[in-house]
Amino acid sequence: MTSLGYLRRQRRKFPLRSLALFFLGSICTSVSSPGYSQQVCIVQSGQVNDIRMNDNIEMVFAAFQKDFSISEINRPHTVRYFEVTEKSTQRKWFDFSVNEHNKIIIVDITGPCVTKEGIGVGSTLRQAMKAYGRPKLSPSGDGYHVFFKRFPLVGFLLNDADLPAQLRGIPDDVLTKQHEMEILKYRKARIVAIELSTEE
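Predicted structure:
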């Protein structure tokens, strides 16, 4: 069975009452002006809005089918992948990885989703560290994720282009504490995705 570690290496003015209802679990709220719509979602440890890790993938279809296109992506692995794209903008928000029991095991978020502290795609490493403390660095096929003890099983992917070339792409078995210290000095590095998983 494909491990989560392997998958990581392979591969975002309401009235007070309405705002409260949103934070209690509405799946998507639309803030509209003529000709413009911006969707919003909330990331927590183990879930994004009402969708939790280990939920059946059918929860995704029920939550997103109105305003989003959901496509299964064929990849040569034992898990299944579903891409969720906003219909109005064609912007990809999520990739859901699903095991053989149709349970969600990884969510990669690139849409405008934020934590309750306001950390999301476009935030900097400095802002994330101010909210959660010093992170642990984890290399992946897409770059470096940072994980925080205060916010378990949520990884923030740093933009490789914001790091010096000599610090990019260092594999896990080569990465040293010195490398990690050097990388974490680049506090202006931006977050380009958020990953939720079921295990470290």
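Summary: Residues 125-197 form one domain.
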